[in-house]
Every structure is written in C-alpha cells, then in structure tokens.
Amino acid sequence: MSRWLILRTSGGQTLPLAASLGAAGFAVWTPARVLRRSIPAKTPSGKRLIATDAPILPTFVFAAEADLLRLAAAAVELPSPHPAFSIYRHGGRVPLVGDSEIAGLREEEAREAAVIRAMREAESHAAAEAIRIAAIKSEAARRRATRELERKQRAALRAKPCQLAPGTVVEVAEMPALIGVPGVVESVDGAHAHVRFGTQSWKIEGWRVYPSTLSTIAA
Q: Rounded distance, CA 8 to CA 24, Å?
C-alpha cells in the first residue's frame, strides 16, 4: 500500500504545484474536475461554453512518502521552479495517509471525468445539458444515501462497547486536534475509553479509538 504526505499551497496554485512537481519527477496527485461555464462570444446564442480544470480539494496536494526528503529541500529552495508550498506537519510530525484514506477522492474524480466525457460525446447541446442535470440529481441522491448510511453506521458504532485493553497505544479518528498523536488507553467505561496524551487524560467515544497503525515521521 502506498503512503502519502500532504503538501499545502494557496488555492490557486493547487493544480500548478501538482503539475510542476510532477514534471520534476515527484510522485504527486491532487483530485481535479472540469468546470464548464458560459462566456460572451460572437455566436448565434451570444455565448460559448469553455471548460477549465479546478481542484476538488484546493490547497492540498498528496505526495509519495519516498519523496519526503527531496520535497523538504524543494520547499525551501530559492529561487524555486515551483509554486510556493510547505509540508503539512501536526504536533512536530509529518502524518502519512494510506491509499484507502484517499479512495473517496479518487472515486469522485473518476465520476466527474465520466460525466464530462459523456457531455462531450453528446449529439447536441440539449443532450449534453440533460446529462449534466441528470448527473447533478444522481450525485445529490448518492450523497443523501451516503449520509443516511453513515448515520446508521455511526449509531451502531456508538452503541458498541469499547474492547481495547488498558495500556494499548492508540490513534483517534475524526478529531482534528489529535491527528497523528498517539495516546495510551488508561481504562474503558462501556462505549468510552479514557486515553492519556502526555499528561492529559481524555474520555473519548470508543468507536473513534483504534490501535496505532498510522506511521509518523519525526520532523
């Protein structure tokens, strides 16, 4: 499984940074989509559709773990051939994410690309517009179904007793303040765990806590 670190840049430089680093031989990726908009033009309708690439996740670029040292050097290189960027750190460490954690972004990018291909292959503007509207409705329905499924799964997780043993080194999911920060289970209270981070002890829902498998690299 590939692991990725996160690069941060300005919103408008997201795609240029990915392109520049990719051209320089770095393994980088950021999800993108094609936006279509009308502009005034000397046509019978008085307008023309243009397509532009836009980032799905502005300011974020994912880079291969193996390029960490080279990227650290490139980030401070002056003058730099790349748009300005920094390596995301949290608590003095560089969090790494696995392929499974960005799978949803890859799927969204693929769906966007499929819609654009269908619109380009449509026989008329009306047909292309129908495809666009159908895609919007389909995406809205998909998001509603996903939210409902997540709600049910979350309720089931919250009702499940925590089964981690005291002394287990853990990570915490969906709590931004604790991303990449390992803690130690002190005790378990039904569906909750008491986890110590340094000198502080937190009571956390058990479904959020899992044995530490997320690798981190000291800054």
A: 18
End-to-end Cα separation, the chain, in angstroms = 23
Cα–Cα distance, 122 to 28 (Å, whole number):
33
Measured distance CA(211)–CA(182) in Å, rounded:
9
Chain segment 87-121, per-residue pLDDT in tens:
998 767 888 888 887 877 878 777 777 766 665 66
For residues 128 and 15, what is the distance between their CA atoms, to the nearest angstrom?
A: 26
Alpha-carbon span 50 to 199, nearest angstrom: 57
Give percent above pLDDT 90 in the chain. Answer: 35
Burial of residue 105 (number of CB atoms within 10 Å: 0-12, 13-18, 19+): middle
Number of domains in the chain: 2
Q: Does residue 178 share a domain with residue 107?
A: no
pLDDT tens digits, one per residue of 59-96: 999 999 999 999 999 999 989 999 999 999 876 788 88
Tell me the pLDDT band of 218, cut-offs 50, 70 and 90.
very low
102 domain-assigned:
yes
In angstroms, rounded to a whole number, what is the distance separating the alpha carbons of residues 196 and 193? Answer: 10
Residue span of the structural domain in which 204 resides: 169-218
The tokens describing 199, both together, are 């000198």
Average pLDDT, the chain: 82
**Alpha carbon distance 167, 146 (integer Å):** 35
Question: How many residues are listed for the chain in this entry?
Answer: 219
- H or E element, residue 97: strand 97-98
